[in-house]
Amino acid sequence: MESPRHRLLVVDDSNVIRRRIERANEVPGIEFVGSASNGVEALEMHARLQPTLVTMDLTMPEMDGAECVSQLVQRDPQLRILVISALADKLTAIEALERGASGFLCKPFTDRQLNDALRKLIDAP
Amino acid sequence: MSLESEVGVFVGAVLQYFGTTVQQAAVCGTPHLALNAPPELSDYTGVIRVSGKRSGLVAFTAPKSMLSVMLMRMQETDMSHANLCDLVGEVANTLAGNARRDFGQQFQISVPEVISGREGRLEYPVAGRPIVIPIEWRNYHARLIVCLR
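Above: the input entities. Below: the structure tokens describing the complete assembly.
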């Protein structure tokens, strides 16, 4: 069996979404390591769990996803972040990418769309 | 944007949500203005406050039975009150967030608030005229309430 090469941290204020992403991930080589419900918790879990991949919601209490992306990328420029948000306008997606995210997936999403987005994230050079 | 187009944005978001997340199509009934009395709430209501270029609220209200089946369709086994609250808030968040595709980035949305119980009351903006979009999914009835100025 292939040992996981990527460690996934899921950040979303919705427990339903966090659990769904954890369950739906079928990409070989990606291991779920933990989840956080806001940006502050995500920074703490990043320090503790050392993930290599993050899925990040944008609209969250405490610290929103955009600010959290900036801080995570500053700490760890190699970190790959997939923003998963309901905010469907183009400017929001562009802003997330400019802050250092590697991809953007719009809610609602199917399991297949999630897995395709995760695959692209780890396949990117 | 005309009122008809605005309603169309939310109807489109509802249809996409159910087709994608629970992979069973919903049907939207005829939208109507709640002129005489505030719209009735169901067991759980997720509320998103809107600010920026527009102000007001977007609320999704649904019976417990419908939310439970939606969770099952998502392979979720935890049917607790907390998870039902979480889901109704997430649906409201998704429908309001998707509207930014048409309303733009100045359509700013809050994190969800949740009201549980049919006796709960929504605080509408002064002089706001709530539009009710009936939603049928399987044999369940929910509503999307949109009140924007």
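Note for the figure: Chain A has five helices and five strands.
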